[in-house]
């Protein structure tokens, strides 16, 4: 079973796939080794890296966890010398860092969910994102559960979002906030057929 889908969107063609390939090679992992960790076929992983398939939210986070790097490293920074440059060597905490509007590409995933990194560079132990769920979109197209290390807190900016976590179901609306340990199974879905949902996420590792 695959939770990736074919796409040819403007942000999809190879952007995230090429970044994942660079990260895999930096870890000195073969396609087969990483695919075995993920429980998917090497051909499916190859298609993701080549930009022919887009992962879901769940699959992307699973890949980053298997690589042992934060989700923030999946983003390309257009201000970098090239799209396959590794993450900055200088800690962004050591000096003032600014990311101008439009210099960090968003990530469009298979279910239509868009992730936008809100920090100029990856920050050790902390991740800050905005995610946009189109009408009816979910964290996984198959309704699969996600679990990973760390704690998450979210703040709704617009729309409604259903958060299921460890047997509980909560409906978040604009202005609501939520926090939970990410190790427990959880998933998200936008219940609206007409409105997108926007939420800010802070993840602490």
UniProtKB/TrEMBL annotation:
Transmembrane segments: none annotated. GO terms for molecular function: DNA binding; DNA-binding transcription factor activity. Residues 20-74 form the HTH cro/C1-type domain. Gene3D superfamilies: Jelly Rolls, lambda repressor-like DNA-binding domains. SUPFAM superfamilies: lambda repressor-like DNA-binding domains, RmlC-like cupins. Pfam families: Cupin_2 (PF07883), HTH_3 (PF01381). Keywords: DNA-binding. GO terms for cellular component: cytosol. This is Helix-turn-helix domain-containing protein.
